Amino acid sequence: xxxxxxxxxxxxxxxxxxxxxxxxxxxxxxxxxxxxxxxxxxxxxxxxxxxxxxxxxxxxxxxxxxxxxxxxxxxxxxxxxxxxxxxxxxxxxxxxxxxxxxxxxxxxxxxxxxxxxxxxxxxxxxxxxxxxxxxxxxxxxxxxxxxxxxxxxxxxxxxxxxxxxxxxxxxxxxxxxxxxxxxxxxxxxxxxxxxxxxxxxxxxxxxxxxxxxxxxxxxxxxxxxxxxxxxxxxxxxxxxxxxxxxxxxxxxxxxxxxxxxxxxxxxxxxxxxxxxxxxxxxxxxxxxxxxxxxxxxxxxxxxxxxxxxxxxxxxxxxxxxxxxxxxxxxxxxxxxxxxxxxxxxxxxxxxxxxxxxxxxxxxxxxxxxxxxxxxxxxxxxxxxxxxxxxxxxxxxxxxxxxxxxxxxxxxxxxxxxxxxxxxxxxxxxxxxxxxxxxxxxxxxxxxxxxxxxxxxxxxxxxxxxxxxxxxxxxxxxxxxxxxxxxxxxxxxxxxxxxxxxxxxxxxxxxxxxxxxxxxxxxxxxxxxxxxxxxxxxxxxxxxxxxxxxxxx
Amino acid sequence: xxxxxxxxxxxxxxxxxxxxxxxxxxxxxxxxxxxxxxxxxxxxxxxxxxxxxxxxxxxxxxxxxxxxxxxxxxxxxxxxxxxxxxxxxxxxxxxxxxxxxxxxxxxx
Lengths: 552, 108
Prior knowledge:
Mean pLDDT of chain B: 82
CATH class of chain B: Alpha Beta
Number of domains of chain A: 5
Largest sheet of chain B: 5 strands, mixed
CATH architecture of chain B: 2-Layer Sandwich
Distance between the termini of chain A: 15 Å
Number of helices of chain B: 3
Order of helices and strands of chain B: EHEEEHEH
Largest sheet of chain A: 15 strands, antiparallel
Shape of chain B: globular
Oligomer: heterodimer
Low-confidence stretches of chain A: 23-31, 33-42
Structural class of chain A: mainly beta
Strand order of the largest sheet of chain B: 1-4-3-2-5
Largest interface: A-B, 30 and 28 residues
Structural class of chain B: alpha/beta
Number of helices of chain A: 5
Radius of gyration of chain B: 15 Å
Number of domains of chain B: 1
Strand content of chain A: over 45%
C-alpha cells in the first residue's frame, strides 16, 4: 500500500511535471537557433581583385590588306615651276623635255590596316608600294633638270631607278637626286648622264603610298534588347563591320589632298580577329547585297576581287555577322546582385552586381545588355557607377515593360575575361511590418525574430559570403516587429521561441502588415487547463482524505 | 598630259600667252575650318590649258586669301583677278570649275 504522504507528494510532483511537459511538446521542433554573430565580413570584395582588359570602348577589327590594284588609266604627276627652277617650263613648252607615263604597277602591300584593341594598335592606313615608270625624252634642253612629284597624295619616294635602255641602275639620294623643301623630286639628268643633247631614258620611281580605310567601325545592332534574366546566360548578338576605301590624288602644291582616286580598282582581303568565332550573315559591297559565300575563304577571312570594282574613291563594305557571348553574375545572393550594404545615413544603401564574361571573342565587347531588379525603384536611385568607370544607365522598368516594377539597368560593356562590378546606390524606403500570432491568432509576445533576405540574414551588409545582420529583437505586446528602410522585396521571417525555431514564413514589403501564424499555444489557455487539473486533483485529494479519515 | 604648277602667280600670268583657249578656270578650297575661329583661309586655284604639239599642258597656281566667315571677300578676290586678267588681255575670262580632274580623266 502506498502511504498517503507518498501519494500526495506524487500528486504535487505530477501537477508540476505535466504542465512542463505539455508546455513543450507542442513546440515540436528540432531546429536549434544559432544566435546572431557580430563579426563583420566586409572585406570579401576588393577593387584590387578586378582589373579591366579594355581601357576604352574600342573593338578589335583585325587586318585589311590590298592584294592587287588594277589601273584603269594612268595619271602622271606634276612639274614644279618655281624661282629655284625657273627654266623647266621653257624646256617643256619648247618640247625639249617631254615625258610620258609608261605604267604604274602595284608592287606589294608594305603593311595592312590593323586595329587591335588589346595591343593598342590603331592604324587605318594600308601602306602599299607602287612602281611609276616615266619615259623621258631630252632634246637640247636649257634647264637640264626635272622637278617632279607623283599623282599620289603624300607619296614618299623610296627608290629611284634609271633605265638607259641597256641597264637599270639604282640612284642614290642626295648625290644623284634629291627631294626639295616643297617635296618634289629634283633630278638633274644632264649632270647624271653627261652625254649628248639628245637622249632618252626611263625613270622607275618606287613610291610608298597610303590608302585609307574610312569609317572603319564595328557596331552592335540588336533588333530586340538583350535581357539578362538568369544568373548565367548565353547571348547571340548581331554586329555590322564596315569601312570605305579611299586613296587621294595629290594637288600640285603637295599640301592638300586632291580628289579621291576613281580609276584604280583594289582587290582586298579582310581578316577580322578571331574570325572563326564569327558567323557571317550577309555582305554589301557598294550598296549591292552580294552572295557572301562567294567571298568567304577557307580560313573565314573574306576576299574582295578586282571584278568587284572596289575603287579607291570611297568604295564601301558592310558585313553583318553574329557571335556568342556568355555572361555570369558572380556570388549572387539573388539571381544578380552579390552585395547589398548600408553605406551612409540610415537608409543609403548600395547594391553591387559582379558581372563576368565567361565566353566570347577576346576582341569584341558586348554592350546593351539590360537587367531588371525589382528591389529598387527608379526614384530611390542616388547614383550608378561601375568599377571601371563604364556607363551604367538606369530607367524605370515600367517604361520598358508595362506593369513591371523596379529598375531597368543597362550594364557596363564587357569583354571576354573581364569581371566588372557595378553598383546602384539607392535609398531604401520600404517598411517591413510583421505580426506574429499564437495558435488562436492572438499576438505572440516576446518571440525572437530573425529576418532573411534571399536565404541570407538581412542586415547592414548582405552577401553570400558574409553578413552583418541586424537584430530585430522580440515581438512587442502586439506581437509586432517593424523594420524601417529596407529594400523592396520578399523576406523570410524566422520565429524563435524558447531558443528554438518554431516557424519560417515569407513576408513582403508590398503588404502593409504581414501576419505570421505559429503553433505556440495561447498562454491564458494553459492557465485555464492547469487550473482545472489542479482543481480536480484537489477535489480528488480531498475525497481521498475524507474517505480514509473516516476509516481511521 | 603634263601639269605644271607655278609657285608664283606672276609666272602664271607670263605663261598665259601659251594658252589654247581664253578661259581661266578657278576653284575655291577652304583649308581651315575651325568653327571657333572667325577667320578662315581659302585657296583659290587657277588653271589654264596650253598645248605643245599633241601634248596638253595644264598650268596651275594658287593664292591663299584670309577672310572672315560669311564675308564676301572671296567674291572681291574674283573681281580683282578678273580685272587683273582683263588688263593682261581683255579676251580672258574667269570661269569657276574643277578643270584639272576633268582634264586628267579625258587626257589619260
